[in-house]
Amino acid sequence: MDPTPESIGDLTVGGAPLPCQRLGEHRPTQTPPPTPSLVKTPHHDDYQKTADWILSQTQHRPKVAIICGSGLGMLADALKLQDSFHYSDIPGFPQSTELKGKTCVCMQGRFHMYEGHSLCKVTFPVRVFKLLGVETLIVTNAAGALADGFGPRFPPMSGVYDKDLRRLAKDICKSLGYSQFVQEGVYCMVGGPNFESIAEARFLHKLGADAVGMSTAPEVLVASHCGMKVFGLSLITNKVVKDYDDTEKVNHEGVLGVSKMRSETLQTLVTELVSRLDINNNTA
Ligand SMILES: O=P(O)(O)O[C@@H]1C[C@H](O)[C@@H](CO)O1
Ligand code: HPA
């Protein structure tokens, strides 16, 4: 199957490479539900063709991919731009860059299911990353806190989040003085775009979730399936209301505002993490 726009969503892999062009963040839009042709399952060829196009446009051979959550695209400010690709119809699709001497591919913003995208589309970039040669995926997102104070807890997780990367991140947090506010916990993905009702929030918390957001889980699943190491980072942007007397209400603008306010901290952590990954720079 050819990777026509029909077969892989709006992945128009046609833009000429625009050196050092910054791509805008992919922001949620009121995208209408996809037409049936957009939810066709991509085949290996579809991922391969996109990957081949990217590889043909750059000498970089990234081993690390970073998916920045909403409002966290400023992380890309830390990247030394080498090559970027203009996908005119897909702002926020991967751009190849360098961070701390390590070649990375970075998505500023992601596709969400609540925008009407199929799971195939949401996870499409991850399989393209795999075909680019990526071995480690760093995912970030904005999430609401379910656990009061987001206290320290280490509930069993499935193991998709790499132990060594988690240990390395903890060491980095110690050295940066971040340990007090960086905690491990369970992130639960909901479909969105609505924020949780109080009953839902209580339910998720009872199930063992510490934070809730609307992304990340499908990307992590696909990356793990591809054999990548995965590291996930949630920026807690708000408290999830679990009390019927609490009149506070979360909204997306607030989430973005806090994300922007804290993006430098997150940027420092991810930059340090990438710089300490045991990989060599890779070019064609
Ligand atoms: O891409 P992420 O998950 O960071 O997007 C944020 C979190 C929710 O998905 C949505 C609601 O504010 O934006
Ligand atoms: O409270 C939240 N709920 C769901 N998704 C979110 N993304 C940021 N905050 C939240």
TrEMBL record:
Gene Ontology CC terms = cytoplasm
Which segment of the chain is annotated as a signal peptide?
none
Q: Where is this region: Disordered?
A: 1-42
Set out the biological process GO terms recorded for this chain's protein: nucleoside metabolic process
Give a Pfam family name.
Answer: PNP_UDP_1
Q: Which domain of life is it from?
A: Eukaryota
E.C. code: 2.4.2.1
Does the entry feature the keyword Transferase, yes or no? Answer: yes
Assigned keywords, A-Z: Glycosyltransferase, Transferase
Give every Nucleoside phosphorylase domain span: 151-274
User: What Gene Ontology molecular-function terms does this entry list?
Assistant: purine-nucleoside phosphorylase activity
SUPFAM superfamilies reported in the protein's UniProt record: Purine and uridine phosphorylases
> Which InterPro entries did the record assign?
Nucleoside_phosphorylase_d (IPR000845), Nucleoside_phosphorylase_sf (IPR035994), Purine_phosphorylase (IPR011268)
Looking up Gene3D superfamilies in the UniProt record yields: Nucleoside phosphorylase domain
Which reactions is this enzyme annotated as catalysing? inosine + phosphate = alpha-D-ribose 1-phosphate + hypoxanthine; guanosine + phosphate = alpha-D-ribose 1-phosphate + guanine; 2'-deoxyinosine + phosphate = 2-deoxy-alpha-D-ribose 1-phosphate + hypoxanthine; 2'-deoxyguanosine + phosphate = 2-deoxy-alpha-D-ribose 1-phosphate + guanine
Q: In which pathway does it act?
A: Purine metabolism; purine nucleoside salvage
State the PANTHER family in the record.
METHYLTHIOADENOSINE/PURINE NUCLEOSIDE PHOSPHORYLASE, PURINE NUCLEOSIDE PHOSPHORYLASE
The entry's family comment says: Belongs to the PNP/MTAP phosphorylase family.
- State what this protein does: The purine nucleoside phosphorylases catalyze the phosphorolytic breakdown of the N-glycosidic bond in the beta-(deoxy)ribonucleoside molecules, with the formation of the corresponding free purine bases and pentose-1-phosphate.
Could you identify this protein by its name?
Purine nucleoside phosphorylase
Which organism is the protein's source? Albula glossodonta (roundjaw bonefish)
User: Lineage in the entry?
Assistant: Eukaryota, Metazoa, Chordata, Craniata, Vertebrata
